[in-house]
Design brief:
The complex is a heterodimer. Chain A is an alpha/beta fold. Chain A is built from 7 helices and 7 strands; from the N terminus they run E-H-E-H-H-E-H-E-H-E-E-E-H-H. Chain B starts with a helix and ends in a 6-residue tail after the last helix. The mean pLDDT of chain B is 96. The chains are: A alpha/beta, B alpha/beta.
């Protein structure tokens, strides 16, 4: 799941200050789960934009904003798109880009895209993977230090962790402490002794 | 007579290293003057690399200025600000300018410093950086290309001193496996703890230079205990600082006693005062350290 957070409404209004006749596109996957672009949020956005003096020509909720086949498929969802002078996408950065690929109008995004995360046991998990394209997660018991350590350290923790908490965010567990506990649980503490080479950042 | 830091490391001499920070700006006179107090006292001067993520003059440039003044320098190099291209290029430049000793470390996160929004790099970690240095030493770069002249660095790394921190000890072992010539540690206040640490790393057979930050006040000791990972100021030291009529002097006395004890435990001490080295010569003579 792509983790997004909604920009403050005032910031969105500022983005749209020279725009009118807006079409709003939500996303019924990650953004819907995170309540940053599902149907209730799209309807609320339309209402607030209208309240602020903007005309909203219509809205649509594709299954995934990041996976739009064509302009026509959007029109099938709501043909009011033809009357729009700009589009506001309530998805992640990928959703905004996918819409921009098929709609020749000014495009705006209502969210900040934060990380590739997930949820487990009802708890939101941010930054679980940085999509490095060179996956070695099994070496760390299934927890990626590249993603979960702010410094992305592959060979052990930095010297900054205090009582198992991260130097950068004292609310957050040091992922290396979690990796240690995981590896202990699965009887693979031997993996801690591997010297890991740096990631190869091939252009993707 | 011993000439350079590498030779001294291989000798039985108790070593003194001391930390100097480059200026924040181009006026180099104050830190150069501070470093002059270490002449004839310190076996090498560590030059910090944008310590605490606070932007300063580069460690490389200031190391060269110190070298020109006749100091033996240890250029510190963090993984925070440069990718593997930048790191190698600076290392080649440093070597060509005469810098022979380096000390590699991860580096504090940018949010700790005065440019909190800058992009953290950490393309390599400190273990991989040590590996990189050894490649340059063997005449090839990190990608395996031949160099027109390789380096020959005396390269150290850093470590905490808590013997309970298994992950830190494993990481230290990796640094040594990658070829660390020496280790400089976090500040020691609890000599008993340091002794245990030394026992747990004894098998690595690497020279360990113990860190030392003379206490200036009870408040400082308290701050260290609460906020600095791996630093443990024991109760007894806290009590002495609390009862001292002149805390600065008491801090120096405690530090000098620590040095005396460390003489039997470590290969040397690394002095990192908060502020200037004004008291460093006196501290060392209080500790009974004979000058070279």
């Amino acid at each position: 799941m792509i983790i997004t957070s909604a920009k403050p409404f005032e910031e969105i209004l500022e983005l749209l200050k020279n725009e009118d006749y807006i079409f709003v596109i939500g996303c019924n996957v990650c953004a819907a789960k995170l309540k940053t672009g599902g149907e209730p949020e799209v309807l609320e956005m339309c209402r607030r934009l209208e309240e602020s003096g903007k005309h909203v020509v219509g809205w649509a909720l594709p299954t995934a904003a990041c996976s739009i086949r064509s302009y026509e498929t959007l029109l099938e969802k709501n043909d009011k798109l033809d009357e729009a002078l700009c589009v506001l996408v309530m998805g992640c950065g990928s959703g905004v880009s996918a819409v921009a690929n098929v709609v020749d109008l000014p495009i705006y995004g209502s969210n900040n895209t934060l990380s590739l995360g997930g949820s487990s046991g009802g708890k939101l998990l941010s930054s679980q993977c940085v999509m490095c394209g060179d996956c070695t997660i099994s070496e760390f018991g299934g927890l990626c230090p590249k993603a979960q350590c702010p410094k992305g350290l592959l060979n052990g923790p930095c010297g900054g962790a205090v009582d198992g908490k991260c130097e950068v965010d004292s609310e957050k567990d040091c992922v290396w402490s979690l990796i240690y506990e995981r590896l202990k649980k699965i009887h693979r503490l031997d993996l801690l002794y591997t010297i890991h080479a740096p990631k190869e950042h091939a252009f993707k | 007579m011993l000439f350079n830091f590498r030779e001294k490391l291989n000798s039985s001499k108790f070593l003194i290293t001391a930390e100097i920070s480059p200026p924040k700006g181009v006026n180099v006179s104050v830190p150069l003057e501070d470093a002059r107090q270490l002449k004839g006292i310190a076996d090498a001067v560590n030059v910090t690399d944008n310590q605490c993520s606070i932007m300063h003059m580069s460690s490389l440039a200031f190391s060269k200025l110190l070298l020109d003044e006749g100091h033996e320098v240890i250029m510190q190099l963090t993984c925070r600000d440069r990718n593997r291209i930048g790191l190698q290029s600076d290392l080649l430049g440093a070597y060509a300018l005469g810098i022979r000793n380096i000390c590699v470390m991860t580096g504090d996160f940018p949010s700790c410093g005065d440019h909190p929004g800058s992009k953290p790099v950490y393309d390599l970690d400190s273990v991989q950086l040590m590996e990189l240095v050894r490649k340059l030493d063997s005449g090839i770069d990190f990608a395996g290309n031949m160099l027109d002249g390789g380096t020959s660095f005396c390269a150290g790394a850093v470590s905490g001193i808590d013997p309970e921190k298994t992950l830190q000890l494993i990481k230290l072992e990796k640094k040594v496996r990658c070829g660390a010539d020496f280790i400089q540690t976090q500040a020691v206040y609890d000599v008993g703890m340091f002794e245990e640490f030394m026992e747990s790393v004894n098998h690595l057979e690497v020279p360990v230079i113990a860190g030392l930050i003379p206490l200036k006040s009870l408040k400082m000791a308290d701050y260290m205990n609460r906020n600095i990972s791996g630093i443990h100021v024991p109760e007894e030291v806290m009590a002495r600082m609390k009862g001292a009529s002149d805390p600065l002097e008491e801090g120096l006395l405690i530090a000098s006693e620590t040095i005396r004890e460390l003489m039997n435990l470590s290969r040397g001490v690394h002095i990192m005062p908060i502020g200037s080295h004004k008291n460093t010569p006196r501290l060392l003579s209080m500790a009974g350290h004979s000058l070279k």
